[in-house]
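Here is one chain, start to finish.
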Amino acid sequence: MAELHIVGRISSAKDFKQPHLLCKWSFHAGRGWKVLNGYEEGQTQESCDLYTNEPVWDHPIDLHYTTQTIQNSPKILLQIFHRDTHGRILFGSYGICNIPLSPGLHSIKCHTWKPIGNWKDRLRDKFLGISLQLKSPNILVNSLDRFELLTESMGTIKIELYILTRNFEKYGCHI
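Its structure:
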């Protein structure tokens, strides 16, 4: 079997309007991929940096896959939440990125966005802090389902990953 080992961190956030942020993350891969070791989902701590407005998480990631194909390779889905002035934790945005399959260090900037809906939804968001959320964020893993969404760009999440591969050439998985 070919193996992919992902070691790294969800580093920081940039260009968000809210200073108090946390990130829920999850990895998604096709049926040909199996997790040997590590966690496929988790959550960072809440972080706030009032001076630079770039919260730092440095949240570790360590995941080991085995596969016989490169089809439907792993992706990471991010859900960003923020704390408002009343202490409520509210949804902020989504982001999704493909995991590189080439060995080495990769710095990834994952751009995030949120659904905006109609004018009533936008008013609720602006005045009540009630943002639209998807019923199942897992549909974002399939890129075909995202084309019909109306969205607004939010901030960027910095992810640093070390990718280690083994036996990809042996099983015909040429990268």
